[in-house]
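Hi R.,

Here are the chain sequences for the assembly we discussed:
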Amino acid sequence: MDQLVKTRYADLYPEMGTNPIPLSINKSPDQYEKERRLVFEPEWHLIGRIEQVAEAGDYFVQDVPTFGVSLLIVKGKDHKIRALHNMCRHRGNKVVSTGVSSGHAHGFSCSFHGWTYDLSGQLAVTPDEDQFFSFDRADHGLAEVHCDIWEGFIFINLSKTTPAPLLDSVAEFADQFQGYFKDLDLFAHFSADVDCNWKVILDAFAEGYHVPFIHGKTLPEAITGGNNPLCHMQNIRLFKRNRSLSAMGNPDYQPTPLEALVGAKVGTPIFPALKADLDELPPGVNPEKNPEWGFDINIIFPLSYFAVWANGMVLVYNFWPTGVGQTRFEVKLYWAKPANAAERINQEITRVMTVSVVREDMSSLETTQEVYQSDAFDHIHLSDQEIAVRHNYELISAITGWPLTPNKN
Amino acid sequence: MTHQLPAGYEDIQPYADTWALATFSQRQSQRLASSMEDITAFYQAMMPRFDEVLTHLNRFDLNELPAAEQTLMHMSLSLAQIGPCVALWRAPDQENAFDAERMEAILDD
Amino acid sequence: MESSNSLPPGFAELEPFVDQWAISTEVERNRVRRNSSMEEIRGLYKAVEPRLSDIIEYLNEFPLDDMPDDARQLLRLAMSTMEITPAVELYRQPDVVHAFDAERVEILVDDPV
Amino acid sequence: MDPRPTNLTHKYGMSTEPMPLEPNISANYFEQEREKVFTHSWMNIGRTYDIPNPGDYLVKTIDVLRTSVLIVRGRDHKIRAFHNMCRHRGNKLTAPGIEMGSAKGFSCAFHGWTYDPEGNLVVVPDEAEFFDFDKCDNGLAPIECDTWEGFIFIAKAPKESLQSWLGEFYDRFEGYFDTPDYVRVSYYRAEVNANWKVVLDAFVEAYHAPFLHGGAYPDQLSWEDNRFAHLLGAEMFERHRVLSIEGNPDHDPSPIEKHLLKYSDQVFTLLANPEKSKGLPKGINPTRDDKWAFDINVIFPNFYIASMSVMPLVTYHFWPVAVDRTVWQTEHYMFAAKNAGELLAQQYSKVFARDVQREDLITLENTQSVLASGAFTTMPLSDQEVAVRHGYKVVEEMLR
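And here is the predicted structure of the full complex:
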């Protein structure tokens, strides 16, 4: 048997079905509006780490273009982390201008008329206040959106009503990591506007089938190789709404001369950096405790994607839909703060390689969305190894009522 | 002389003005604008010295590098930027990839 | 620059600034301002400001559209000084502190000097 | 006692409630503005002195009217406006990017149809091939055109004359602007991703001066006696509006300004200039106050004239393109520079104003990008922002 095939996932998850998926779900403006209302608005979205706002007054800006929103994620004097609308209550100017992504502040002053808010968003100073009419500062704080923390990850929720608790969304992952994620410093952050449906780009990061083809030169046998040339996943786990995949790290991977040299100086190989003490890992990391483990992909419905790597790095993707054929895509990389120059250079190698690999993953997205318009065919085929992609379509179909059965589209 | 390297690195000094760049986006732009000859020449100049470079830089506090060491660090980060060009693609950029200019580096150090 | 570098007699100490700052259009003066260091900008200001009245008295002798090359070079230096004055007197940095992107503002009336 | 006007919002019968943001974010509202406001509005394009001789012409794309306007002075010296479209198959008559020029006639590059400076169709190559065709019926499509104070106005479908449209403004300036002596020394333009009212609002209140312009105007507009740049005067008319702004009389000119003031009084220091505002028409420094710095005259919907103590005329235009997109432009007019000293004073004023205007523009896209976030849906406006409030009221009334 030349393939790492243990189980047919279609047998493990019969309710998934095996029919081709009608691609109109990625082209229909009406479907997109339904997804915006029923899928994105009521749900929690993972946007960062508590380390990004370690001290009171630390803040970063998180735009949510899906709803034309800009948020200030700030740690208050009470050490509570809040998500405040980056929008002055006077005439709507941003209190932190476009182009500033993070910082430290004692308060936020609008550059337009000097309205000043404290770290909890309360309006502290209104210049020329007596010129306003029956004005009460208490009613004019920065608007706040729901914000909650799980395992050090910061989540936001934009629903107008009280959303379901975060733990309901985290669901099956809830107690699987128990404090595993700590001291994760943001060391890379990229953003791009991509002309494709959000599901088209999410799908590109939820299967390994593309790896030998899309990443042939850039990841030569890093997560394939040996007895797994077509990059089958070690394990795919589909939960009620969430899902998780574990991918292999080839123990015989030949690092480049530069990777080898820096890896030796840092003390661990850059990739796959297999964890010797497998049993010390919490249940949620490398759930099968496979010695050839490379990394896990965990997706909390609908858009919270965090990948956990054997070398300790954590990668977060954000997919912000802005139209049926447009998505704002963000890549955030977290790792322990570099202790010396070699570790900083090691991170730079990883940053360069990650953005190169991601740019390859993105190479097909815009042309795919384009040819969708041609109506040349109206279904896409998914292999058993792409069951995690199918899982998302099944969920979206169930929530929005978009029929997936081939004859009724 | 700007981009002055520490003593003992005169052999790679000629590359400093081109490759001692402070941000990721500058280093990436330089890579994309360079020929494979320039990239390979820089790579072949740096690699034989790089173990020594790492040992030298590791002696300093990462956040308080003196100017000469800061220049050496920026050149090392440029080496990380062009490593895959020589080792994997034999070209300044991958053949089939999303436009690098459209990937905005929000954190750009 | 097609015209000669030299300045009229009595303004020799401004000669070092001619190459960088004797510029005929506002578009170019603004671009050079935004791409110069505060050191270079203050250098021009400190050299020209004390002499500005002398410069104007001298240049007012000539019709604007018929000036000898050396006077025209001096006028260009003074025009660049107008361009960098806000950087020195107000913002203390080359460009406006908190402002709309300069590249997106078209300068549509810009008679060369 | 604060001599400056108070209770302006009440005085002009406007509600003091917070104003809805909907008019700045709703694409539907924008279409109504196109149809019920701009289509019937008289709007300024250029000055009569821009086209002094027969055959001189101006071209302006007006996105909100979905057309390009050609304004040309005929051989009879009359100024006419037309749609810049050949009557044959609609091709534009002027080359792209051209805003001003002079011509004996206008020939379409497509098939050579040619029009005279009065818009008549005079040449149709191969005319015999057309069917019962009469050149007299196929001149350029006219657009209503009239002039006032040296400004050219056009209107696509006006419901009243220009004089009636100008209302209270019509005889306010008594020819003060109608002179070739004011030379256009600067013309800056930018496309801004913000609603035209959001852009206009940034220029019709002084409350922002101590904050947005804290660096540029350390004490010219706000100082101990007037910390928040309160208005010197304000008049809200039926559609149009006027604000008067005062300057700090004790502001000392900067080192460079001290030099320039010896050779020109056109130096953009916003200094109150008592002698300068004597014997002027009632529309210039209407408050007749010695601390007068400049007036803001907004001729609804999108034409803004600032008359200043230091320079006679500054204009702004706010050309709507879409609900969240506007072409902003400003032009400064001064007396022609007779010598280097005056030219340098002009250049100093141009640079100073251009830098300050880039400060005014910075908040606009920041605002528009989050205006539809739903964080809140109304904005509180102070009594000093009476002109902002008036703008929304006038538009609202025209949409009914």
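Chain A touches chain B at residues 101, 186-194, 214, 217-218, 220, 256-259, 261-262, 265, 330, 338-342, 344-345, 348-349, 351-353, 355-356, 358-360, 362-363, 365 (CB under 8 Å). The radius of gyration of chain A is 23 Å.

Let me know if anything looks off.

Best,
T.
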